[in-house]
Design goal:
This protein is α+β, with helices and mostly antiparallel strands. It folds into 4 domains: about 1-55, Winged helix-like DNA-binding domain superfamily/Winged helix DNA-binding domain (Arc Repressor Mutant, subunit A, Orthogonal Bundle); about 70-115, no CATH class; about 135-225, SH3 type barrels (Roll); about 230-315, no CATH class. It has helices spanning about 1-10, 15-20, 25-40, 70-75, 80-85, 90-100, 105-115, 135-145, 215-225, 250-260, 280-285, 300-315, and strands spanning about 45, 50-55, 145-155, 155-170, 175-180, 185-190, 195-205, 230-240, 270-275, 295. Helix 2 crosses helix 3. The N and C termini lie far apart (about 70 Å). The relative contact order is 0.07.
Length: about 325
Amino acid sequence: MQLLLLLQTNGKMTASRLATELEVSVRTIYRDVEALSGAGVPIYAEAGPGGGVRLVDGYRTRLTGLTAAEAEALALSGLPGAASELGLGTVLAAAQLKVDAALPPELRSRAVRMRERFHLDAPGWFAREEPVPHLAALSRAVWEDQRAEIRYRKRDGEVKRLLDPLGLVLKAGVWYLVALSGRTRSLRTFRVSRVQSVRVLAEGAQRPDDFDLASHWAEASVGFLGSWQTTPVQVRLRSEHLRLIRYVQDPTRTEAALASASEPDDDGWVRLTLQFENLEMAGYDLMRLGGDVEVLEPVELRAHLAARASEMVERYASVPA
């Protein structure tokens, strides 16, 4: 479809130029031209100087009638859940119907096969779905470059914030709003599920000319992970149970934990270093591994687990009345 629209917009184009535009090889362009021709599209290649790939004069794809909202929704075609949360679920469905209708029969069947065989599910397992009732309003403020006043829930209560919304990010099934906030109009990130109310103002938002949402998010993510303070815990673990590490370490820490593992000792145990948010969380998580793990350091965590284990032994030693 992208190749067709390029030819429809620009007329005749060389195979090398098409390859550059579509970031594929010239051989791929010729193969796609042959496939399109076989699917009934009046497309052909002219050889020699001044030649190129072109459509028969007067031919246009039937990709017509897309509304502005439908065209915008196509950017979320791989994330129907996200589109629905943004209030674009029915709009996306309408856009996909129009795209399907515009495709030649062979390409239409390929598109249908693709949707039948591939599905993108962004959130991780066991993640509780977060209600985002104000996402659509924030999306409108972002799209229309309008300031917004929100009430935001923090650990110590609610606060009001006047924002210049810059963008929305969906990370592992969780929505975040990137905005300018405060007197200094500094860049801040807000978890959308914690937004209690939104009032979109008539006043236009200030958007920095050099702001790029993807670049900012990448830099902010690196900074966030770098500033995440963790507590190291030295443990012994049965080597055959190293796979259990993923149950007590998130994916960003699992690789480092496994890399720290020693060679198995004579009893088949390995030593490694795990990272936790704090000792309390370490205690809860490590209890899940039962007798397959032994804490070596810090000693206060070792004592805590020993006390917890003694309590459990005492509790289960007697038969409940």
